[in-house]
Amino acid sequence: PLALGLYTVNAVYGDTITMPCRLEVPDGLMFGKWKYEMPNGSPVFIAFRSSTKKNVQYDDVPDYRDRLSLSENYTLSIKNARISDEKRFVCMLVTEDDVSEEPTIVKVFKQPSQPEILHQADFLETEKLQMLGECVARDSYPEGNVTWYRNGRVLQPMEEVVVINLQKIVDKSTGLFTMTSSLQYMPTKEDANAKFSCIVTYYGPSGQKTIESEPVVFDVHYPTEKVTIQVLPQRSTIKEGDNITLKCSGNGNPPPQEFLFYIPGESEGIRSSDTYVMTDVRRNATGEYKCSLTDKSMMDSTTITVHYLDLQLTPSGEVTKQIGEALPVSCTISSSRNATVFWIKDNTRMQTSPSFSSLQYQDAGNYICETTLQEVEGLKKRKTLKLIVEGKPQIKMTKKTNTNKMSKTIVCHVEGFPKPAVQWTVTGSGSIINKAKETKYVNGRFSSKIVIAPEENVTLTCIAENQLERTVTSLNVSAISIPEYDEPEDRSDDNSEKVNDQAKLIVGIVVGLLLAALVAGVVYWLYVKKSKTASKHVDKDLGNIEENKKLEENNHKSET
Question: In terms of pTM, does the model score above 0.70?
Answer without folding.
Answer: no
